[in-house]
Design a protein that fits this description.
alpha/beta, Rossmann fold, TIM Barrel, eight-stranded mixed β-barrel, six-stranded parallel beta sheet, 17 strands
């Protein structure tokens, strides 16, 4: 790696109209081991990006006659491949629009920070920078994944599962798991879905769904033989739900798993856009003993009338609302409204993305029934689930420390 690349990886370009705010940010960045260059105008920013290819661009959403949203388009147009961090004192809804636009444009967006910035928040945000590719390079999957390589992954049984534990909020007990697919690549190690799912052909995607269901139900059968009964959630696409063989596939596998409760998770956008979901196949899935969950609820634009008609057993509140529950009154209001909706419709409400256990009391007060997230337990191999079930859950430990009732024993 040459000296220019090394310098670029330690450089942040800052676009901020307020010189005092820029000076404070520059000092904070230097404390965290990064150099910075200050820009007051958008054209200056683009010039710095083109010339230096910095690792990070930090910019306010409002400055002068320009705005940060238009600058996102200009960054994408000039092929910037580093990370982008937004600073804002504007309404949170505007920030979310900007974040989603940046992602849609192919920019690598970090979680935004409110003004004034705190050093600890900036440090946590910058932790996402390592490891990174040289900012001047176009990111590519590592290693390059080809169709034949993915086919070999199936043949060699390199597709494996980790499980995200889910806890019952009232008791703190381990109540279920969500199956998360991984590729145990012989060279690159364990790859997460984002590294290979976009490359799958329709046939490979159907093959993957069958493989995930098979592995997950085998693991569920093993837990059940050991005396642990858990609900099992598996992510599927709208195409998967419309596949006639899905019902027979799961039904056959469930027989060996002792009729473990199976929840098929579909994203809110797919669930609300696919008219067939409310017809024959969805009804047969329900009659066959399978449950359907709407994942990432609150992110899309749902038809509440259609939601009332679909055979849905569970709503999962998107982590973007849960993560800022204690800081943002609007996020808290959305979580509370979804929980109330679920309660009125007789649907379980799962809060995803719990990282701060301090939010558990609010989630329970709102009416959420289950929780999951890194603050409770990270995804783990099947063998570790039994050990987790036999220990005191983080929820119960937190309640014990606060003097609250520990709930029932798992």
């Amino acid at each position: 790696m040459n000296d220019l690349t090394m310098q670029a990886q330690r450089l942040a370009v800052v676009l901020e109209e307020d010189p005092d705010a820029a000076a404070t940010l520059s000092l904070q960045l230097r404390t965290l081991g990064m150099e910075s260059r200050y820009c007051r105008h958008g054209q200056h920013l683009i010039g710095e990006v083109m010339a230096r290819r910095p690792q990070l661009v930090i910019m306010a959403l409002e400055f002068g006659q320009q705005d940060g949203i238009s600058m996102l388009r200009r960054l994408a147009e000039c092929g910037y491949r580093g990370r982008v961090l937004l600073l804002s004192g504007v309404e949170r809804k505007i920030v979310r629009i900007a974040e989603r636009l940046g992602q849609a444009l192919g920019l690598q967006m970090l979680a935004s920070l409110d003004k004034p910035m705190r050093l600890i928040e900036l440090r946590e945000c910058l932790e996402a920078l390592a490891p990174v590719l040289p900012p001047g390079d176009v990111p590519a999957p590592m290693p390059p994944c080809r169709i034949e390589e993915l086919d070999r992954a199936f043949a060699r049984q390199e597709i494996t599962l980790h499980y995200q534990p889910q806890f019952e909020l009232a008791s703190g007990r381990l109540s279920g798991v969500e199956a998360l697919v991984r590729w145990a690549h012989p060279e690159a190690g364990l790859l997460v879905p984002g590294r290979f799912l976009p490359l799958l052909t329709p046939d490979q995607n159907r093959h993957l769904t069958r493989r995930v269901l098979q592995l997950a139900l085998e693991d569920a059968a093993g837990w059940r033989r050991a005396g642990l009964s858990l609900s099992l959630s598996v992510n599927v696409t709208a195409d998967d739900l419309m596949c006639p063989e899905l019902l027979s596939l799961v039904s056959e596998a469930r027989c060996s798993a002792g009729d473990a409760p199976v929840v098929l998770e579909i994203t809110e956008t797919a669930a609300m856009e696919d008219e067939l979901l409310g017809s024959e196949v969805a009804a047969r899935l329900h009659l066959g003993g399978l449950e359907v969950s709407v994942d990432d609820f609150g992110v899309g634009f749902s038809s509440l009338a259609r939601l009332q008609l679909l055979p849905i057993s569970e709503l999962k509140v998107d982590r973007s609302f849960v993560s800022r529950l204690l800081e943002d009154a609007q996020d808290a209001a959305i979580v509370e409204a979804v929980a109330l909706l679920g309660r009125r419709l007789g649907i379980r409400v799962v809060a995803e993305g719990v990282e701060d256990l301090a939010c558990l009391a609010s989630l329970e007060r709102y009416g959420c029934t289950h929780v999951q997230g890194f603050g409770l337990a990270r995804p783990m191999p099947a063998a570790d689930i039994m050990a987790l079930a036999g220990t005191q859950s983080p929820m119960r430990a937190s309640r014990a420390a606060s003097g609250a009732s520990p709930g029932s024993t798992p």
